[in-house]
């Protein structure tokens, strides 16, 4: 949160946070990945333990195809960007101020 407020002083933090969110590298999406991976790991353990129990201690004949592959379902883009609204607002303000200064400078150069 404090890093987001840094966007008030410079556009760099806002750009960094938005870039991370769009790339799927932010903390929220990392935790979503960890949660889904842990759920898959536990399901795999249950399947293997059941096979071990049913075969009386040997998994030699276990069909590994019974374990589904891990597929990550990332959160929607709106969910990823929602916590960044203050930073994106500051970024928009930085853009507007920069555009106004550029247009004012251009007007002075033409005069």
Word description of this protein:
The protein is mainly α and 111 residues long. Helix content is 68%, strand content 0%. The protein is built from 5 helices and no strands. It is rod-shaped and about 90 Å long. The two termini are 44 Å apart.
Distance between the termini: 44 Å
DSSP E strands, number: 0
Radius of gyration: 25 Å
Task: Indicate the structural class.
Answer: mainly alpha
Number of helices: 5
Q: What does the largest sheet look like?
A: none
Rounded average pLDDT: 86
Strand content: under 5%
Low-confidence stretches: none
Q: Name the shape in a single word.
A: rod-shaped
Name the helix and strand elements from N-terminus to C-terminus, one letter apiece: HHHHH
Helix content: 55-70%
How would you sum up this structure in a few lines?
This protein has 111 residues and is mainly alpha-helical. The protein contains five helices and no strands.
Key terms for this structure?
111 residues, mainly alpha, 5 helices
Topology:
Elements: H1 2-5, H2 11-23, H3 27-54, H4 77-81, H5 85-110
Helix pairs in contact: 2-5
